[in-house]
Amino acid sequence: QRQSMEPGELVYASGGASRALRAALRGHRATPGEKREAAQLSARAEAVHLEGLVVAVEDAALASGRGPLPDLLPLGAPEAPLPAFLKLDEACMEIRESPGAGRGLFAAVDLPRGHTVLVERPIARVMDYDEREPEMEVEGSDEPPHEREEEEEEEEEKEEADPLELDPSTAQLVIALAEGLNSGSEEDRSSLEHVLEELHPRFEDDWPLLADTWSDWHCGEGFDDATADLHSALGALSSTPADGESEKKKTAKQSKKKKKSQSSAPSGSARRAALALRLPEVVRCNALGFYTAPEQLCHPNFFSVLNGLGLYSRASLFNHSCDPNVSRYNLGDVAIFRTNRPIRAGHELCISYIEHELLCESPAVRQMALGDHHRFFIDGYSPEEDEQSVHGPVVTAEMQQVLMASLPKDRLDEIEEILSDDEASSLLLKVDRKELAVLRAVTHMQLGDPNKAAFFWVLCAEWAEESLPPFDETNVTYLIQGAVCLLASGNRAGAAAMLGAAVHHHKISFGGGPYWLALRYRRELLHEALDRESSMRIWGMLAEMSGDAFQRYS
Fold it and tell me: pLDDT digit string (tens) for 130-175?
């Protein structure tokens, strides 16, 4: 009961909690007072731990992502117990064959919405790779500009069609895994090999490999150094040469033998050669990006340094759905998966392989976002469709940066010009119109017009309810921002309603209560575009909802 405690200390130092536990173990009931004291102390202990998590994440962001990420969640460490909503329920799901999709994860029992089904750290990860522009020739050319542009477009189409080209981040992750297999103790290497052998694609006759040898993989024109590093790592992993009988044929033979009889397993060197050939495809098919607080407006300027790519052992078994019943969020590189609706036992647990904001678009757009390397078609997509007119979002991050560089009034005029131009407007996807609404909301906030800003935040929240999976993380930001603007415009009742909806959404998406929301959003509430007084009043309203948990916050 001291004012300063280490994370988790109260769980063990609490006399009331200990008495309640002993009473339960003895088989008779604890007194009401003991129960209340135990609950209060448990809540405060959880609050201490949550503060520690947020501080660790923010410290890592302030360090600009340099060095190793902190051990944010001590998974399986009894000396630092996790809050209940971050604990893994290992009995809640099981691995089964999914018709037409290989293996998948299925609910073993009935699951409520907002249930944590998986908390996992990657077996390997890389922070966002410095995707610098490849070195190109800059000397002048005698060719007319339009001919050079046509050649560049043809070259881009050729590059996009190359199935053996890896993006730099994926290549870096392949290198990290290959180096892990080439170093460390024999036990560690064997454990990593076992994990990778279980990941899709597992068998050559189920999934024909694209490469004949590991040296076929590359990082594209201009990334020669990255390609050289990739070949060096895969070559060290493989004990067979890249010429002669192709590794692809050898892998096919070994795969068939493995299916026929486990007793005729290939030798260690042969397994490593087969793994060197499979590894790039394993990583490309299974790696997941991790992003801390990507839904918040402050993400690009604060949390984006924590972005990266990781290969997760268990999470790689989630199959894709355009109507996912499981969503995920990250604390650093730790991925937390939670149900967004009730799920009956026996039903498959699925995530989305593409951004949730694209799930409301046409099948052709979703298929383009998925990419070719997964080798399956989105529901409703027809390969015969004319894809010449299919394109991704127009209001990209780069375009948003250009617009935000304009003066606020000029920015509103530019957005209005885009929306009123028939040709430009016809190119906008649903997500583009939403992004423009977000820009208009932020701009009105900068101009000191919270009433108009609230109007656009409400539009964004309605769009999220209609277009995104249930209780999507993005809507929490829209509801919080709308609450601040409504409060600034004098509508306290409307602000309270939106804040209550934000707390409810956040509890389903992220777990915890108002205090966890306040901790995760404390950077967002200090955003320069927000009215500072209204932000602090929103903070006070969250404090009222949280009770004495806020007494610890400074």
Answer: 444 444 444 444 555 444 445 555 555 444 568 889 988 999 999 9
On the question of a cis peptide bond just before residue 201, with omega within 30 degrees of 0, the verdict is yes
pLDDT band at 287 (very low <50, low <70, confident <90, very high): very high
Query: Phi-psi bin for 318: left (phi > 0), alpha (psi -120 to 50), beta?
Result: beta
For the chain, the farthest-separated pair of C-alpha atoms sits apart, in whole angstroms, at 92
76, burial (CB in 10 Å: exposed 0-12, middle 13-18, buried 19+): exposed
Distance CA 193, CA 271 (A): 9
E-strand spans in 46-194?
A: 93-98, 102-107, 116-120, 124-127
User: Does residue 47 contact residue 549 with C-beta atoms inside 8 Å?
Assistant: yes
Q: What is the DSSP string of 397-451?
A: HHHHHHHHTS-HHHHHHHHHHHHH-HHHHHT--HHHHHHHHHHHHHHHHHTT-HH
Residue 338's H or E segment, with its range, is strand 334-339
Each residue's pLDDT tens digit, 458-469:
999 999 999 999
Average pLDDT (115-138) is: 72
Per-residue pLDDT of 219-231, as tens digits, reads 988 888 999 999 9
Q: Is 494 exposed, middle or buried (0-12, 13-18, 19+ CB in 10 A)?
A: middle
d(CA 1, CA 168): 51
Q: Look at residue 105 and tell me whether its pLDDT is greater than 50.
A: yes
CB 337, CB 315: distance < 8 Å: yes
| DSSP label at residue 100 | T
Average predicted confidence (pLDDT) for the chain:
79
Cβ atoms within 10 A of the Cβ of 346, count? 12
Relative to beta strand 348-351, strand 319-320 is: parallel
Helix (H) or strand (E) holding 543: helix 532-546
Q: Which amino acid would we find at residue 150?
A: E
Burial 448-476 (b: 16+ CB within 10 A, else e): ebbebbbbbbbbbbebbeebbbbbbbbbb
CB neighbour list of residue 224: distance below 8 Å, 6 or more residues apart: none
CA gap 336, 350 in Å, rounded: 14
Find all residues with CB under 8 Å of 123, minimum gap 6, and list them. 177, 192, 195, 310, 311, 312, 313
pLDDT tens readout for residues 427-451? 999 999 999 999 999 999 999 999 9
Who contacts 421 (Cβ-Cβ below 8 Å, separation ≥6)?
none
d(CA 131, CA 449): 39
- Cα radius of gyration (the chain): 26
CA atoms within 13 A on the CB side of 323: 6
For residues 424 and 412, give the distance between their C-alpha atoms in angstroms, rounded to a whole number: 16
Residue 525: exposure state from Cβ atoms within 10 A (0-12, 13-18, ≥19)? buried
Question: Is pLDDT at 24 greater than 50 in this prediction?
Answer: no
**Is residue 297 a contact partner of residue 529, using CB atoms and an 8 Å limit?**
yes
**CA 108 from chain center: how many Å?**
25
